[in-house]
Amino acid sequence: xxxxxxxxxxxxCKRRGFIFQSNEIYGGVKGLYDFGPMGVELKNNLKQSxxxxxxYERDDIEGLDASILTxxxxxxxxxxxxxxxxxxxxxxxxxxRWRADQLDNHNCPNCKSKDLTEPRPFNLMFKTSIGPVxxxxxxxxxxxxxxxxxxxxxKNVLDSTNRVLPFGIAQIGKAFRNEITPRNFIFRVREFExxxxxxxxxxxxxxxxxxxWVESRYNWWKKQGIDEKRLEIQDIKKDELSHYSKATVDIVxxxxxxxxxxxxxxxxxxxxxxxxxKNQQDFKISSNVMKNKTSTTKLAVQNLTNKNWFxxxxxxxxxxxERGVLALLNEAYxxxxxxxRTVLALKPHLSPIKAAVIPLKRNNEKxxxxxxxxxxxxxxxxxxRVMLENSGNIGKNYRRHDEVGTPLCVTVDFETLENNTxxxxxxxxxQQKRLSSDELKNYYENxxx
Length: 449
Ligand code: ATP
Fold this sequence. Notes:
Bound molecules: adenosine-5'-triphosphate
Largest sheet: 7 strands, mixed
Strand order of the largest sheet: 3-10-11-17-14-13-12
Shape: globular
Number of helices: 13
């Protein structure tokens, strides 16, 4: 059974230390959230799974970690200064503010008045000054997406790795958008993380690669534990495409609040490298780019057969980490009424805690010491966090770890001290097995393989 409501997920997240409202003790700030002890592990595991699938399991993608503060030239030539905006309307009656494209029937959702201002563009970028003098002349932005610094580093990565097309550059990191109406828990927030790949291809091969990445990304989400019943591939209609896009496909998930975008995969043509390159006039740039006389670097490659220089096309799969976490929590959350427990049936590679080692009796020195040894041995294997749970009451510990998704609980009891055996309990089946401590390493490794 999938979670009934967003409220249940929000409540689980707070109760078990996944996600908290940011600045909560001062009343909170809208659109900002903090990831707690369980949330940070889940989020890191999701990012690591993406990184592995992009960089380690392939041979055509390099990683990058660029600065968050981004110079204004980058976001001028990318088009963000002029066009990265949402249409904002004010309600003249109750003074609330809304995104015009998200209103039903041109009504104020707050007071139902129809007395709204005309929509006007509201730029979503956060601007801040840089350097000691704040006279408004030297400013930078908190990046609204991770992509732009991938484009500006195109030549650096190419030259330092000797790559030839097709190849990609991947990055995970924070992005910031001053959303007019943040809502639906961590679905639409003002500070979030993106997992973005920019995959560079020769023009003419772009359609094929676009199709390839849509399929590949869809399958990746399934492997993370998302049921295809709640996953959809949607082609964005031609008249709704961003100005730079030749084709965009959204991977849409059926969130507790409705079907919405989890990841977008766009064919961005030569717009990005064409916008940021020096000597634009030397290339046949197919998209409509702003004249750039500031860039110092040619962002082009040479066709090895005919020796012509050209600007690569870009295929961009761009996924939100928070939206991924929300979808995964929604998938994993199960109320097991028969056994009166709540279970977070996360895929083991995503579970915040891989195993909890529990001494049967709290503060019993012999049991606790033995449990510590077992904990350290499992921790050394390096698959993620292993936890020593020295709080007594085995039943309560099992329930707690079911609820945060710990796949295995290892119990150390008095028999352990006699014959060096432990019990391993499986989250999903609730079955317990008695094993010799020496077999545990193999059992644990095989389980997570
Ligand atoms: P939306 O239409 O929902 O505002 P978008 O089309 O503007 O999203 P993109 O610019 O394509 O989003 O960003 C890529 C990904 O980043 C999205 O698929 C989403 O997962 C994530 N993302 C974008 N904006 C937010 C946000 N405000 N909060 C959380 N995640 C976001």
